[in-house]
Design brief:
Layout lengths: L9 H27 L7 E3 L2 E3 L68 E9 L10 E10 L4 E6 L5 E4 L3 E4 L3 H7 L5 H14 L5 E5 L1 H10 L3 E5 L3 E8 L2 E7 L2 E5 L1 H9 L6 H21 L6 H7 L4 E3 L3 H11 L8 E4 L5 E5 L5 E5 L1 H12 L8 H5 L2 E6 L2 H12 L4 E3 L12 E5 L3 H10 L7 E4 L8 E5 L9
Parallel strand pairs: 3-8, 5-14, 17-18, 17-21, 19-20
Antiparallel strand pairs: 1-2, 3-4, 4-5, 6-7, 8-13, 9-12, 10-11, 15-16, 19-21
Helix pairs in contact: 2-3, 4-5, 5-6
């Protein structure tokens, strides 16, 4: 039998071998990538810790939050150098890799039993400077909105963007970088969930939901409302202000001013002639003005529909059911006793990092005291002033000052109006009491920062109010 031999083409064999090697190499790379860089919706392992997407999607009537034990960054040994409160820009440059978070300390610093009422709903409002095509960004507005569903009250707490905290899996950084790091490292739940975990770990506050938007979302929301009326209590001037809408000179004088979206955005963002604390105070004023306008237009029940109009520029983990429930709660809130607070220079310590960044270290003791007062329920317990139920009238030769004072007093639950007769501007303010309403008069003097000696009594059976406050040249509406 004759053997048959197949001739082999060495060039063809070499080509086939190289092709097979290439295919298996690509497969190996893909398998390795899927192991080391899983999709953002999967559980990711760092060291011995496992991260899962535990962003709470809870009912509006909340169960008792699970206590969290956290700690604050402490000042370095040898004292903390004092620095001027000026910003040192820090580019958001990702760390080489995420590291396993430090073990949870055994002792709580901020949160204690009963700090946050179990029926409180905490929503984090986030404002970012993220723009289309931008590789990194920062979250420069962080406001915690807390709603007490039992007492129907609301509070706002500004968290400064330069607060130097421990970001889980990243380390010590400014809190305004957590959103970007969560996106960059595919943290389960994304950047907002990493901010939630950062706040819970460092401040002991569980955040249930978030709402995030950029500059354009802020502008569009105000324009949908038809503009807002903001009580500008402090003058604000900035000659060269640049933003996405062009160049402007900002000159806001005290008074109740009507603003469109761009104007309100500029009022809320300006900081180079003031500071971040004052900017946070102005941002809370704008949010209150938006709430007032939405209430006046009866738009709160239509919140889910309004959200649909802006869903391309706002992100939230609130579902349709939660939105509808919040809209209902919003119509019942007692907006005359709003708590507006901030973690500011009274509860932080200026510090320069080894890299030269100017940041704020949390003062654990003072922040604890602030949070205890912030979360304490606003009760209807009748004090001496509320028992008097005094009718108050504000007059002044400066109508803007009268309007500002009336707005501020209404938010504190006073029965007040600023529709009194035209009055010449007095040199010194006076509080005239008609009848036995002295407890209210004393509260008014304290709140308006007037000297107690300004209180005087009179008798007039035809008086239009129980108490008339005449604001003179000595009254300063700017109460930073």
């Amino acid at each position: 039998m004759r053997a048959h031999f197949i001739s082999v083409n060495p060039k063809l064999v070499r080509t086939l071998l190289l092709a097979n090697v290439a295919v298996y190499s690509v497969a190996a790379v893909l398998i390795g990538y899927s192991y080391w860089f899983p999709a953002s919706q999967q559980t990711r392992t760092f060291g011995s810790e496992r991260y899962t997407n535990d962003a709470p999607l809870i009912a509006i009537r909340l169960p008792t939050p699970t206590p969290f034990v956290g700690t604050f960054a402490t000042a370095p040994a040898g004292g903390v150098p004092t620095v001027a409160p000026l910003e040192t820009p820090i580019p958001v440059t990702p760390a080489p890799k995420m590291t396993a978070p430090a073990p949870t300390p055994k002792a709580a610093v901020v949160r204690d039993q009963g700090l946050v009422p179990p029926t409180n709903l905490n929503i984090l409002l986030l404002g970012t400077d993220q723009r289309a095509g931008q590789s990194n960004w920062r979250t420069d507005t962080l406001i915690l909105l807390t709603i007490n569903q039992e007492a129907k009250t609301v509070g706002m707490l500004t968290i400064p963007r330069d607060l130097y905290v421990n970001i889980p899996g990243v380390g010590k950084q400014r809190i305004n970088t957590a959103d970007f790091y969560g996106y960059y490292y595919h943290y389960p739940g994304g950047g907002p969930n990493l901010i939630k975990q950062t706040i819970e770990q460092n401040l002991g506050i569980r955040v249930h939901y978030f709402v995030r938007g950029g500059f354009d979302a802020f502008r569009r929301a105000i324009d949908i409302l038809g503009g807002i009326d903001v009580d500008v209590d402090c003058p604000l001037y900035e000659q060269d202000f640049y933003d996405d809408y062009g160049h402007a000179t900002l000159n806001f004088q005290p008074g109740v001013q009507t603003m469109d979206g761009v104007t309100a955005l500029r009022y809320a963002r300006s900081r180079y002639t003031t500071n971040d604390y004052d900017r946070g105070r102005r941002q809370r004023k704008v949010i209150l003005a938006m709430w007032d306008k939405a209430t006046m237009l009866d738009l709160l029940p239509k919140w889910p529909e309004l959200y649909q109009e802006m869903s391309d520029s706002i992100q939230t983990d609130l579902g349709p059911t939660e939105m509808a429930a919040l809209a209902y709660i919003g119509t019942q809130l007692k907006m005359d006793k709003i708590k507006s607070r901030a973690i500011d220079n009274r509860s932080t310590i200026p510090y320069v990092t080894p890299e030269g960044a100017q940041v704020l270290l949390p003062n654990a003791e003072k922040i604890h005291a602030l949070l205890v007062e912030f979360f304490a329920p606003v009760t209807d317990q009748a004090d001496a002033a509320s028992k008097e139920n005094a009718k108050i009238q504000i007059v002044s030769g400066n109508p803007q000052a009268a309007a500002l004072a009336a707005t501020a007093l209404k938010r504190q639950g006073f029965n007040v109006s600023a529709d009194g007769p035209a009055t010449p501007l007095a040199a010194v303010s006076a509080i005239t009491v008609y009848g036995a309403k002295t407890a209210t008069a004393q509260q008014l003097a304290a709140f308006l920062r007037l000297d107690p000696s300004s209180i005087q009594t009179a008798t007039d059976s035809n008086a239009d109010a129980d108490i008339v406050v005449n604001l003179g040249r000595d009254y300063n509406a700017c109460q930073r």
